[in-house]
Structure formats: C-alpha cells, structure tokens
Amino acid sequence: MPKQNSQQIAAAVQNPMQQLVDKYSIPRRVLTVDRLPSGAMPIYDSNGSVILINESVQTAVRHGARVEIPTVEITTNFSVNIAAFQLMTLEDIGRRITVTVENDLITREDDLFFELLKASESTCQRDSSIIRDLNEFNEVIFSAAINIEKYDIRPQFLICNEKQQKFFSHLMINHGLEMIPSKLCDSNTFYILPSKETFGTVLIRQDLTCVPTDNPIEASLGWAFFEIIGMALFNPKYLVKHEFVYRGQDKFKSKYDYFEKSWKEEDEVTVA
Fold it and tell me: What is the span of the domain harbouring residue 184?
C-alpha cells in the first residue's frame, strides 16, 4: 500500500481527534488548559500545596510559592492488516482510528484526573448522608455547593456516575451546575468542583501528534499517537466529595427510574 496513504490518513485524523479530546476529556473541561509556548517552563504560583501527576505518572504533593509541574507522555496506537485496509475507504479507516484512539486518550486523561481527586481526599471537604427523598437530595447538593461559596469561589461542576446522569439532571435544574457524568465516579458519590480558573490546570507541552508506523514485515499499516501533558490541582480544599446512601421509597425509584439495581439499602457509606 502506498506510503502516502498512511501519511494522508495521519494528517486527516490529527486535528479532528485533537478537537474531540479537547471537548470530551474531563480534566480539560474542568481545569484551565494552558498550552505552553516553545521553551516555556511549566512553573506556576501556588498557595501552598499542589497535588500533581509526577514524572512516574503517580500522584504527588509539591510545596512552595512556585511549583514546577512535571509532564508525562501519553501514547497509543492503531494498526490494520493491509488486506483488510484494501477493503476500506480512507473515510472508513479514518473513522475507525478516530473512535478507537479518541476513546483511549480520553480514558487515559480521565484516569489521571480521578487519581488526583483520590489523592485530594485528605485535603478536600468530605461529607456523607442518608437520603430519603428528592427534597433531601436537593438540599444535599445545595449544601455541598455552599461549602465552596464560603471561600467566595463559584461552584461550577458536578461529577457523578454516568448511570445516574438522568437523575442528577433532574435534580440540578435549580442548582446552576454543569453536570459531567463519568463511569470512573462511584455510584454512591458525587463531586462538586469550583470554577476551573481556581482549581487547577492541564498544561500542554505537545499537542496530539500522529505519525505513520507501517510494518511491511507484518503486512500492516499503523499510526502512533502521542501527547505531552501535565496535570495539577492548586486548590484541592475547594473540592467537595459527598458520599451518600439512597433509601427512598420504591415508588420514588419507579417514578423517576434513574437508580440502578446496584444501589442497595444495605450499602453503607463511611467517611474516615
């Protein structure tokens, strides 16, 4: 297969995939995105402690008035047998690459962000409740948002489990929060986050880049994708994590039909 086909596909998918990652990656939605100029040092002002992803792709805490945010490389790849490729149009293969790699990159970034949330548990505001009806749930969300407003900071996002998305959408009509569902969030937990400019950053050292990696020996065409990013939370104390047990009546669950069978009355939540 002509080499220009691989190069043509790489050029065709790179920008659309970057746009999708920017749009759907949770950390890019809830944190300030900072694309670093060439040669710029990723050093940021700090109010004290910063929770970040270090060079070993682990969470870490750095202290000081100015903190350097490490960067990590996120990579993935896609390959297809030449025989199968010959049966596809360029649009078909481009679509397959985009769906597969986009999901992989977004999942990797979301995983890192939730690791930061977990690492913030000793610093953030934590609470728990047993909720019996819709009014109580509204009050719980309102109280959680107030815990951020007491710092004169605007609460902006609510992250919940994606299986409870419809339920939280119904509750949040009057709360003015942007809901972000995720399979990575526990089903008995929600987070409320402050405005992105006060919470943290995703720094971009290298935007998404695609290069052909064809393998003539294995008769396959391939593409490697990589980006270099850093991620940090500057004010984890503004984060609210709320764990809850729902003990509403069956008719309530039937009426709204938003709760999953995994929500059992015997499920208890404890907060250390």
Answer: 127-196+238-256
